[in-house]
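Below is a filled-in request sheet from our internal design queue. Each sheet records the structural input a requester submitted and the sequence that came back. We keep these sheets so that new team members can see what a complete request looks like end to end.

REQUESTER: design group, bay 2
PRIORITY: normal
MODE: inverse folding
CHAIN LENGTH: 194
BACKBONE (tokenized):
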């Protein structure tokens, strides 16, 4: 991989990390304006919250966990789509997760965090790996499915709420995984690291 290709390859996660970090620096006041909030969406028409709610977090530990997760996911599967495809996938994941929360989680008043999107990215990347001939990606996909099933039956993984600094909305992970499954099949993956 040339330096130019490396810069292009790493541009999108760096932009996401910069956005997440800048929003975290804005503190709780900015988080309140940007978070997914049911009343503001449904009654005040603040549609930006469908997207920005995924870019703000509970605090620095939550931010750090999600940024670290993004970096690891990018290392694992970032090469499977180009930046335009990943941008479309991320936007679609944000919208799909938010709509899932709006439609199926009527008692949820607000939500923050990138973890649902990260689950979707990992699933989309694993599907792309499989479509590109990497059969070992089935193991990754099965592990993600087991984690999502565990969360649906037993709740958040032990210690995850303490690490994030607040409640974990496991349904966001589930909706992200479902959307990622569809998006991984929809977008044509690159067949090799370029």
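RETURNED SEQUENCE:
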């Amino acid at each position: 991989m040339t330096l130019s290709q490396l810069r292009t390859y790493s541009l999108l996660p760096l932009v996401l990390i910069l956005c997440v970090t800048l929003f975290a620096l804005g503190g709780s006041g900015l988080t309140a304006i940007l978070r997914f909030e049911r009343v503001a969406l449904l009654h005040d028409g603040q549609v930006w919250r469908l997207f920005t709610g995924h870019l703000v977090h509970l605090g620095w530990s939550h931010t750090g966990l999600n940024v670290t997760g993004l970096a690891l996911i990018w290392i694992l599967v970032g090469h499977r789509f180009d930046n335009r495809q990943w941008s479309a996938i991320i936007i679609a994941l944000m919208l799909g997760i938010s709509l899932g929360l709006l439609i199926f989680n009527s008692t949820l008043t607000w939500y923050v965090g990138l973890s649902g999107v990260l689950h979707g990215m990992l699933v989309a990347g694993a599907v792309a790996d499989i479509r590109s001939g990497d059969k070992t990606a089935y193991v990754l996909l099965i592990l993600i499915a087991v984690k999502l099933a565990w969360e649906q039956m037993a709740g958040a993984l032990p210690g995850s709420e303490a690490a994030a600094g607040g409640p974990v909305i496991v349904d966001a992970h589930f909706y992200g995984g479902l959307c990622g499954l569809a998006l991984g099949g929809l977008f044509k993956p690159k067949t090799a690291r370029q």
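SHEET NOTES:
- The chain has one domain: 3-186.
- The longest helix spans residues 3-25.
FILED BY: M.R.
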